[in-house]
Specification:
Blueprint: H1 2-13, E1 25-36, E2 39-47, H2 49-58, E3 63-70, H3 73-81, E4 87-89, E5 95-99, H4 100-105, H5 108-115, E6 125-129, H6 134-139, H7 148-162, H8 171-179, E7 186-194, E8 212-223, E9 226-230, H9 233-242, E10 249-255, E11 258-274, E12 279-293, H10 302-331, H11 338-345, H12 347-353, H13 357-362, E13 365-376, H14 384-387
Helix pairs in contact: 9-10, 11-12
Length: 388
């Protein structure tokens, strides 16, 4: 009987070893990592919970940033911690932004450090800052979101669902790709449009036009953990398309001296590799809706629709060609994962060719078969110009 009583008493006395008092925590939702001379500069974006309730009516910022400098990342974090009144907590981390300057040197040390954080769940988004310091991005205030980290996360999720420019890349996704044989990673980038100084001023929130906004930009291309350079917007779309990371795609086609805007949905990319003939065959399918017509055409004629489908195919092939030239000829890094497909399908063959894969990849012939059908013409069967 005594033994039965002792067990519940012990359970009541025990607690979580890393339990924190909520009032003593500073919730970190964003991290920026920059270089300052030859040292690391780490910035934490802290949720200012006590001011959130009054921020809307009094114009106070719902966030605060703290920065620290050190020879190592931990030393930089220690430096910023002594400036903070509370213990930083990264369990709700949303985004980590790394400067392109650091990414060109290699991300191995940073990735390893982030993995050792026992509080973070490693499902946060990871991005590169482009042409601006990473800490500046965390300081830009948005009139639509309480925290800049939320703004970035919302931009990523919206753009990923609606456009072909980016797809959602978390820390875990990047690490998985980095460690996977036969594929090199890419990362989304983020930059600032406008005045980055005025964009940090809470007084500017009362203006109808923001002085600065955060913008998701093109893809950064990697060789292992080092950034080689950037793709353009169109090349980024092509890379995502060939990597089967696209479901929806906006594309414009020429019509006389103007344009027709199309929205392709349910896109799927299937890839087969014939390594003996040094050939990759890519099948791309989808259905298209006509969103905007700025010229005089008769959409009731089957030959008009067929012509539009051919124009879409032509434009997609153009984007793909620009992307493959960039990746195969300029950067020479397999971000499409063709080596990964060989490794999974024929591990024995991959073992034979992996040491020479860079050269093989550079000379692969990529053939595309595009099958896009126009299924919807919007609310109008004819254009207004044609009806008149």
């Amino acid at each position: 009987m005594k033994k039965l009583l002792i067990i519940p008493i012990i359970l009541l006395l025990t607690g979580c070893w890393n339990y924190y008092e909520l009032n003593n925590l500073a919730i970190c939702t964003g991290i920026a990592i920059d270089k300052k001379e030859d040292k690391y500069e780490v910035t934490f974006l802290i949720s200012n919970a006590k001011k959130n309730e009054v921020s809307a009516k009094e114009g106070e910022a719902g966030t605060t940033t703290y920065s620290g400098i050190g020879d190592t990342l931990q030393e930089a974090v220690n430096d910023l911690q002594i400036k903070m009144p509370f213990e930083p907590y990264t369990g709700h981390l949303v985004v980590t932004i790394i400067s392109d300057e650091i990414a060109k040197e290699g991300l191995e040390n940073i990735l390893d450090y982030l993995a050792r954080d026992t509080e973070s769940r490693n499902f946060f988004y990871i991005l590169l800052s482009k042409d601006v310091k990473a800490k500046n991005i965390l300081e830009i205030i948005s009139p639509l979101q309480t925290f800049p980290s939320q703004t970035i996360a919302s931009d990523i999720e919206t753009s990923s669902a609606k456009t072909s420019l980016i797809y959602e890349i978390t820390y875990n996704d990047f690490i998985y790709t980095l460690l996977e044989p036969g594929i090199n990673p890419v990362l989304n980038s983020v930059t600032i449009i406008g005045d980055k100084i005025k964009g940090t001023d809470t007084k500017e929130l009362s203006d109808t036009i923001p002085k600065a906004t955060i913008k998701i930009d093109s893809l950064g291309i990697f060789k292992e953990d080092k950034l080689l350079g950037w793709a353009t917007i169109e090349q980024s779309k092509g890379i995502n398309l060939l990597s089967n990371n696209v479901e929806n795609f906006y594309i414009k086609t020429k019509c006389e001296d103007k344009y027709i805007m199309n929205y392709i949905k349910n896109m799927k990319t299937k890839t087969n590799i014939d390594i003996e003939n040094n050939t990759v065959n890519v099948d791309i399918t989808g259905t298209s809706t006509i969103l905007e017509v700025n010229c005089k055409i008769d959409l009731e004629k089957p030959e008009t629709i067929k012509k539009l489908e051919q124009d879409i195919k032509k434009e997609l092939n153009k984007i793909i060609e620009e992307s493959t030239n960039l990746i195969q000829k300029e950067y020479k890094t397999d971000v499409f994962g063709y080596g990964k497909l060989i490794h999974k399908k024929n591990p024995k063959k991959w073992k034979e060719i992996k040491n020479n894969w860079d050269k093989i990849f550079e000379n692969l012939k990529i053939n595309t078969n595009i099958d896009i059908h126009i299924e919807e013409q919007g609310a109008l069967i004819q254009t207004i110009k044609e009806a008149k």
